[in-house]
Amino acid sequence: MPARRESFVQTLRAQWLGQQMRQLREQRGITLKQAAEFLERDFSSIARWERAEWPFRRGVVVSLLDLYGEHDGRERNRFIQLAEDAWRTDRWDDDYDELVDASFIDFPWLESRAERIYSWDAFLMPGLMQTPAYAEAVIRNAEGEDATDFSVGKWLQLRIDRQRVLRRDPTVRVAAIIDESVLRRPVDGPAVMRGQLHHLGELIGQPNIDIRVLPSRVGLHAGLDGSFVLFGMPKPYPEVAYAETLGGRRFMESPTSKRYALAYDRLRAVALDRREAAELIAEIKEELP
């Protein structure tokens, strides 16, 4: 008799847990069949859990961690906590700060799976649209005194690799609203800024990319709390909002993410359209010494 399909809302936590459990299984060289035999289940059940079609139960996760030889207490705790909270759709930072490092839920992982990526960029150029020279200057500033050529090179390569999403098939819709001050902020000198603005001018003409500019004449607006990114995920996964502060990174699902979507719509309503944005970008580039 075939297994009964469970009713389950596929949350981001469930998808991330499934991906991480699959990755751990493959790292240990264990097949779906071997894992299923250990649990005395059909191997298709393991596949459904890993695809987040069914929820991982706490006991199943514990048994698989034993099979996979994962005995580090911190790692086991984060997997088990995820299994217990797979139904949740609220923000990630409150309950996971002691269990999860900054790479727990992965920003590039979201970018690679999203159907739409919308951003409000209040301080710097969007990461997906930065030139290598601009990105390197930003990374060196973020790393501060700890920056080494090796660490900067590693993060720079990651940023360049992330930009492949702009050329992904199927096409992903990428939209950015950039504050005018970002276009005028001198990052590592006129040559770098000239190259960056020229790059924006090229991107703005691509059919899957929408670049708008919030002009400086707009005073109070919906983006005063800082930059954020919205990820439109394929069904049945929820929209995800991301914001970063000195206090840490936050990933938020619905209904919290809806507040960011509303803020984005309000910003777009007062931003320059694509033609006006292109003209302003070209004008600022010409003003550079």
TrEMBL record:
Gene Ontology MF terms in the entry: DNA binding
Every HTH cro/C1-type domain range: 21-51
Pfam family name, one: HTH_31
InterPro entries: Cro/C1-type_HTH, DUF5753, Lambda_DNA-bd_dom_sf
Name under which the protein is recorded: HTH cro/C1-type domain-containing protein
Organism the protein comes from: Micromonospora saelicesensis
